[in-house]
Design goal:
The chain is of the alpha/beta class. Helix content is 38%, strand content 14%. The chain has two domains: 123 residues, Aspartate Aminotransferase, domain 1, CATH 3.90.1150; 220 residues, Aspartate Aminotransferase, domain 2 (3-Layer(aba) Sandwich). α4 links the parallel β3 and β4.
């Protein structure tokens, strides 16, 4: 008889035990543990929530035509590709898409039961597999940071429902050769889902999408949470292989997965405005640079900027001990690497999602402490 599923503790809830270490700071903890945006979205985007009139009826589950057309325009400007509205659909933020995808893919291919994902990764890739009764198999990294797909056991490839790739990567900011991943997936008949939610914050070169290498067998996943500081609106999107996008749209329609109409209207305004994204890029790069310098000076470690994203990711040895010292000395809460897989236990992730003033506050606190 199988055992009932018991949800594990949510990783970030485990950080609460560190908070008392910063009680001596009168101006409080600076939370750099979760990638929750701090900065406001544009006024026009906020105004769009209350002026569309779309709250009165049920919204289209795949996303309204204005929303999908805005996505098409954005992809054309950002990546120089033309993806049709019929090859684009909306989701209620990308976390629910990641967490539920294995269920829908297993219905499509009941002969397969395995989700491949990066070994250093956003934990919902593996949790989505678990919740669907599937196997989660971690793909190791090559020394250059890319996925070592040739290291995947052939028996796991044969059972694979899908492969997740994440570029820029969370937590490590690594950039993947998406063309090579797409080719591997097509060669082995494994659909590739490319999580590109941080693509607007690519520091090494321009932002890339797997869709630049064709739509066959691949789906790109994007979000307005990071790009436009709209995490509370829960607007995500997926685009790519017409058959996969259509299949997922039909399944999700039956479950009633619908982005609220006012949020879809706000997303159109956000996608059609690139100026606020440029401003946000400048903010994050400035904060990454300031925090990397402060942490390097305080710890004696070489904290370098990522290839993309707004996280610093560096090796510290005992991650929980390091996080405790940083709370005590700087009042900053960060995430131990074990949240992102067993290969990451000696690392920490620092999300520069607070204001310039709060980032500077941590730096000032750390300057007052000797190593």
């Amino acid at each position: 008889m199988s055992e009932p599923f018991v949800p594990p503790p949510y990783p970030y809830d485990r950080l609460d035990r560190l908070r008392p270490l910063a009680e001596h700071f009168s101006d409080g903890v600076v939370d750099l543990s979760i990638g929750t945006p701090f900065d406001p979205p544009p006024d026009a985007v906020v105004a769009a929530f209350g002026t569309s009139g779309s709250e009165r009826g049920y919204p289209a589950s795949i996303g309204s035509m204005p929303l999908r057309s805005a996505v098409r325009r954005w992809m054309s400007r950002r990546f120089g590709i033309d993806v049709l509205e019929s090859e684009i659909a909306a989701c209620i933020g990308t976390k629910e898409f990641v967490g539920t995808l294995p269920q829908w893919m297993r219905l499509r291919r009941p002969d397969r039961d395995t989700v491949l994902h990066p070994a250093i990764a956003y934990p919902t890739y593996a949790m989505g597999a678990t919740l669907a009764g599937c196997r989660a198999v971690a793909v190791p990294s090559r020394p250059d940071g890319g996925l070592d797909l040739e290291a995947v056991d052939p028996s796991d490839v044969a059972r694979a429902l899908l492969l997740w790739v994440n570029s820029p990567g969370n937590p490590d900011g690594s950039l993947e050769d998406l063309g090579a991943v797409a080719a591997w997936g097509r060669r082995h008949g494994v659909p590739v889902f490319s999580d590109e939610c941080y693509v607007e914050f690519t520091w090494d070169g321009r932002g890339r999408t797997i869709l630049e290498h064709g739509l066959e067998g691949v789906v790109a996943v994007h979000s307005l949470s990071k790009r436009s500081n709209l995490a509370g609106a829960r607007v995500g999107l997926y685009a790519g292989d017409p058959e996969l996008v259509h299949y997922l749209g039909e399944v999700r329609k039956h479950v009633g997965m619908m982005v609220p109409g006012p949020a879809q209207a706000a997303a159109v305004a956000a996608l059609d405005d690139d100026a606020h994204v440029v401003e946000q890029r400048d903010r994050y790069l400035r904060r990454l640079t300031a925090m990397a310098a402060a942490l390097s000076d305080w710890s004696g470690l070489d904290v370098v900027l990522p290839g993309g994203g707004f996280y610093l990711w560096f090796e510290v040895g005992d991650a929980w001990a390091f996080a405790g010292r940083l709370m005590s000395d700087g009042g900053a809460l960060v995430s131990p690497g074990e949240f992102y897989g067993p290969d990451s236990a000696g690392f920490v992730r620092v999300a520069v999602v607070q204001s310039d003033e709060r980032i500077a506050l941590v730096a000032d606190r750390l300057r007052g402490v000797s190593r």
